[in-house]
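For reference, the entry.
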Amino acid sequence: MNQPGDHSSDLGLERLAAVNLNLLVPLLALLEEGSVTRAATRVGMSQPAMSHALGRMRRMIGDDLVTRQGSGLVLTPRALELVAPLRDVLRQTAQVVNFPGFDPAHDSRTITVAMTTSTAFVVGPAVARLIAERAPNATLRIRNFVQPQPSDFTDDGVDVVLLSEAFTSPYPRERLYENRWVVIAHPSSDPEASALDLLTSLPHVTYDSRQRVAPYAAMDAHGVQYRIGQLISDHLLIPHMVATSGGVAVHTLRVAAAMRERVDLRIEEFPLPISPLRVDMVWNPRLADAAFIAWLRQILVDASTFEPGAPTVVGTSSAEPHVARGRDRPPASDSRLPGSARSPRERITNRRRARPPTGHRPLAGRDHRRRGGAIT
């Protein structure tokens, strides 16, 4: 017969028995949301019930936990210390009680993915199609942002944020796909003009942002002269404007290729060596369902796979596409690139000689030339 062991070093079950452990769930919700209203909604409580629970939590912990600051709440130092251990405890509790695992065939949750409109334009349709096929009872919610805020990574039920490397993240990132830079122009542009010719002879349509974008930094570094003709606050609108009203722009291949299915657009390789734009997955740190995360990750990977039949670039969508000629792909050492001279003296001379065509002089002031914004 088993004899009772010595439990003198136990957690103190007699003390825990006197504690209402049911408060731990709303406590974590309150600490994560920083709002009584949002915390109550998250755990299915009324706001008065959550306010009453907050009073009991304060007495249990012996700390105010949250204090009023302006129109919102801020966590006390003690509350900040509690967030991580509370998450661990409740995750382990969920495993102990053996909650049913994620079953996409029957799950009816709302799946929330946050991203820019350009990213949604590229992967959104495939994400929607795959979720509808693999989780027929689920609801997809796509949230858009222009400049991600801290709350975009955690609030309103977001599961994952798709974020380009142009933006910073307070949480770990996981690479999803790469998107290389291309030059886009109106289909009636000179078919003999190379990508570099287009960039130096036509007015640029760019995203209206002070944040630098890599292609413009590369052009500046090589002394390439260009003129900004239009500044647009919606970067997804840029290919449409170029295709319908002319000019030239630097954009990403996946957006340009998807837009070319809708409007006639000329796409050329960017003529300078440059790294592609990378898009990452940033998971909500509060999301604890490992099976669901693995499933949704595979959805996103499948949705972002570039179709083999997609244009590698070049030409327009007309019946007789523009054929890329050798001069349309100038190597980095092409003598027409001001920054490609073999010696510093040649580089300076070339920069002095580089002049835009008549009627397309760069606007005065370096600040305006640096308005090429982040494209995602």
About this structure: The chain has a mean pLDDT of 80. The longest helix spans residues 77-96. The radius of gyration is 28 Å.
